[in-house]
Amino acid sequence: QVQVVESGGGSVQPGESLRLSCAASGDIDKITSMGWYRQAPGKQREMVALLVGGGSTIYADSVRGRFTISKDNAKMTVYLQMNSLKPEDTALYLCNVDRLTATGRYDYWGQGTQVTVSS
User: Fold this and answer.
1) Of 78, 81, 85, which is closest to residue 110 (Cα–Cα)?
2) How does DSSP assign 7-26, residue by residue?
3) Are 19 and 8 within 8 A, CB to CB?
4) Which residues are CB-contacts of 49 (< 8 A; sequence separation ≥ 6)?
5) What's residue 53's pLDDT?
6) CB-based burial label for 93 (10 Å; 0-12, 13-18, 19+)
7) Which residues touch 95 (CB under 8 Å, ≥6 apart)?
8) Shortest CA distance to 14 belongs to which of 80, 89, 70?
9) Over the stretch 9-39, which tens digit does the pLDDT of each residue have?
10) Rounded to a whole number, what is the largest CA-CA distance in the chain?
């Protein structure tokens, strides 16, 4: 099992910044990717940013150039630096941990942290 805990959400004005953190603990070996998704009310969950094997990053078009994902391997923590926030970035941000073992691939999710961007 992997425990996933997010933090760092809040309410900000357009143009401001936030940094989200996601800490993974437990069976953290064989993790293949860690990243962020978001879900706004009435909308489907969408990928925001992922860190995959080898350190490659994947970003949604809507956040590329404004958001940066990074990882502290020693702390098994992933960060999402969000700059130039827009009202359309308002959503529940969820951290995902993907783990591949001999018995299969497993997804773990945190409870989410709310980000609200409003003037």
Assistant:
1) 78
2) E--EEE-TT--EEEEEEEEE
3) yes
4) 35, 36, 57, 58, 59, 60, 63, 67, 68, 69, 80
5) 81
6) buried
7) 4, 5, 6, 20, 22, 24, 34, 35, 36, 37, 78, 109, 110, 112
8) 89
9) 999 999 999 999 999 999 888 899 999 999 9
10) 49
